[in-house]
Write a structure and sequence with these properties.
- A hairpin with a 2-residue loop joins strand 1 and strand 2.
- The protein contains four helices and eight strands, in the order αββαββββββαα.
- It has one domain: 3-Layer(aba) Sandwich (Beta-lactamase).
- By secondary structure, it is α+β, with helices and mostly antiparallel strands.
Length: 113
Amino acid sequence: MLKLGQIVLAGGNWSGRRLVPGEWVERATTAVVAIDRGRSYGYHWYMGDVAAPTASQPFHWVGGIGWGGQRLFVFPALDLVLAMNCGNYRKPGPEQGRVNGVVLTEVVLPSFV
């Protein structure tokens, strides 16, 4: 999962090799449909903005959202890829990501800004 995030962050490259066209990465991570909670959706990629208490402005992210709290976040402005694994499978959708949100905004992002 981290490698996929790094490929997206690098515009389609991995270890100096072009794996997918950069234009495809750009199109896949461009918002096509607005969805709930301020998020958008591209070609199988979600995107949005998240604020950290220590930051003066929110950070844009693109990523994958899986069932149970599985998350892949790519923060281009921070040169950061973050993979999170949870096991909240029996909880409603919004509650599955609650742990991810707290870890992201209160632990991870404050250590980068």
